[in-house]
Task: structure prediction
Amino acid sequence: MFQLKTEHLIIRDMCLEDEDAFVAISQDEKYQRFYDESDCDPNKYRELTHLFIVQANEVPRRSYQLAIEHQATGAFIGTVCLRLEDNRQASMGCGLSRHHQGQNLMIEAVRALASFGFQELNIHRIYAETIGENKAAIRLCRRLGMRQEAHFHQHRYFKGQWWDTVVLAILKSEWEQSPQ
Result:
């Protein structure tokens, strides 16, 4: 089983025992703000749990969709992922339960996974795409050292309106030069 340990977290492969907590996070009203209604269906998150378990066993591995477990309590508190693409590129995403936000736990998780990606997987570039109104996600990306590469106007349509999206990224060379 894949696992990274940080000061407060265990970042590991998802398992069936994570399913209920993963579904619960997805049903939080604040979490759903930047997702299409169909993306928030509880059954979709149950299916995703099973998909992530299957993907963890693929060889070669192309997706690290991981559970974030709080070391002190053993509780599932969120997810962080690195999806490998061609040309040593990877996209990153994450989600954290509202109860654990504002404690610097997500930056701890994304830093650990980005470090693994650059050092162990030799990724050249990690990027994230998010809704332009998702200020917390943009702030997190900037704290990771990412810079904005693109701003797409009226790029996604859901909840009865068009949304801008932004792409932020960091290169391995930039990561190596930044203080972690």
